[in-house]
Amino acid sequence: MNSIEIIIWVYHSINRFMATDSGELFKKFVELFLFATVAYMIASEYGRSKELHLKYLLIGFSALALDKLIMSFVFALIVFGNVQLLILNPFLPILDLFLEIFALVLLTNSFIFPIFADKVDSLKRKITKEIFFVIIIVLIIEAFWLVRVTSEPTAAFRSELSYLVLELLKILVLYSPIYYILSNLNKLGRYGPHIMVAFVVYMITPIVNVVNVVFYGGINNDLRVFAHPFPFISVLLFTRVTYLKLVDKATLKRELAETKQKYVHEQELGKMKDEFVSTVSHELRTPLTSMKLYLALLKQKKFGKLSKKQLNAVGIVEKESDRLTNLIADILNLSRLESKKTRLRLEDADLCKLVKDNLYYNLAEQKGLEIKNKIPKKFKVKVDPEKFKQVFINLFSNAINYAKSRIIISVEETPDYWDFIVEDDGEGIPKEKLEKLFDKFYKVGDYITKDKKGTGLGLAIVKNIVELHNGEVWAESEEGKGTKFVVRIPR
Question: Which residues constitute the domain of residue 485?
Fold first, then answer.
């Protein structure tokens, strides 16, 4: 006997064993163990989360476990106690199928729960209707079967029309989730195909049983043996999917807990940073005030006459102290913006007037720059005037520092948004550096560093203020052809 013949012999031996009462006992006991294990896992999770679909899953798997427990007990009596199955014939076959169909109704709807996530009441009504329909059918069939058994006690339920109806009902229940899954694969994620395969495999057995009843009167043993493995395989598939979903859920909970912990930690760090920035800024301002006071006294010759070199030195120190003061102000401002402590006071503002009434125009004119304000008069926008003026000042002062001959201020609008644009004809910025332009303290070579007045925070402040307005800001530039900053605010 070669290896292939041995495999075939083992296969037929197992199938022949499964067709006996001892084989049925073994199969029911294994299924009982699997269903009880899955029910325990789901009960543990349901105890923590109380989710509706877990409740249905728990009841469904518990019903299957109860069915297998009853059938294990019955076949144990048959195998070990020599009890005749005819004694239980009036009720046992239908009870077995009822518990299975009842469980399948709950399981099918539980596994497709994500499809009805936003229609929970609809799903509840669907389950209630299906269970009510199953109970009515089972009660009618039980009544007919009792009449049949009373007239013929040895009648085989598997050969009766009632058995055919219940197997068809089982196919109908199993078909429903397959239809929903095929129509909504995207809502079930990666588990959708696996769940569908499990239901298809489970459906093979009732289909084979229907064929057996219709064409062979339910007595074809080869078809009965062929149908044996599929419910067991389906049970393994259901167990696998349920286990993986519970594991994924536990993993997600752990990750959410870790994320929450990190979030709390980040909040604490943010609070510490704000306190540090506020304290340091305050401590820096005190000596700066004293420095400015003494610098002013020196310039007023309160401590004696100064030479030209000494006056130049005092002037440099004064400029640097002003620069440090501006840096402290920018750091505090940016800190408040990043911590979301700043609130907008939105109102209808005249954009043309907002950008025209500005001291920086004098500085631009002193440098010989031409300013073209193309914003229409009385162009009304809904912004926080003080905050948006700061946006303009930062963009405009940036343009003053790098423009060669002119600065253009303009606006464009659509029904959905409006764009505020500041252009200069300076050296431009390399394209690979545009993305980092709004980062804190980011320097773009000589373009940024050649002006010692800059703090490196102006554009970061612009970005935060614009985002407070639910807008966006970006720069467009080509080396040698100037730079254009665009602020887009939705209407």
Answer: 347-490
Q: Which residues of 301-320 are buried (b: 16+ CB within 10 A; e: fewer)?
A: eeeeeeeeeeeeebeeebee
> Which residue, among 263, 307, 231, has the nearest Cα to 67 in the 3D structure?
231
**Closest by CA position to 104, among listed 127, 79, 129:** 127
CATH number of the domain encompassing residue 485: 3.30.565.10
Q: Is residue 281, in this structure, part of any structural domain at all?
A: no
Q: How many CA atoms lie within 13 A of 49 on its CB side?
A: 16
Q: Which two tokens stand for residue 320?
A: 């640097």
Give the length of the chain.
491
- Is the same domain home to 252 and 355? no
Q: How many CB atoms lie within 10 A of CB 37?
A: 15
Q: Residues 361-388: pLDDT tens digits?
A: 777 777 888 888 888 888 898 888 888 8
Task: Give yes or no: residues 383 and 254 share one domain.
Answer: no
Do the domain assignments include residue 248?
A: yes
DSSP states along 124-155: HHHHHHHHHHHHHHHHHHHHHHHHHHHH-TT-
User: 357 and 254, same structural domain?
Assistant: no
**247-301 pLDDT tens trace:** 777 777 777 778 888 878 777 776 776 666 666 666 666 777 777 787 888 888 7
Q: Does residue 45 sit in the same domain as residue 155?
A: yes
Q: How far apart are CA 61 and CA 306, in angstroms?
A: 96
